[in-house]
Automatic annotation (TrEMBL):
Species of the source: Marinomonas sp. (strain MWYL1)
Full protein name: Uncharacterized protein
Length: 40
């Protein structure tokens, strides 16, 4: 992802960055989800 940082939108590199960012976000949500706080 570092090599794609600063990639311009609507380019091949920009598209690759969007895909990698979406995959990273999905992984984070699945494996590092934060539960809502419990009411006291």
């Amino acid at each position: 992802m570092r090599s794609l940082r600063g990639a311009k939108p609507n380019t091949q590199e920009g598209g690759e960055m969007e895909i990698l960012a979406a995959l990273a976000e999905a992984y984070k949500e699945k494996h590092h989800a934060i539960d809502p706080p419990e009411l006291i």
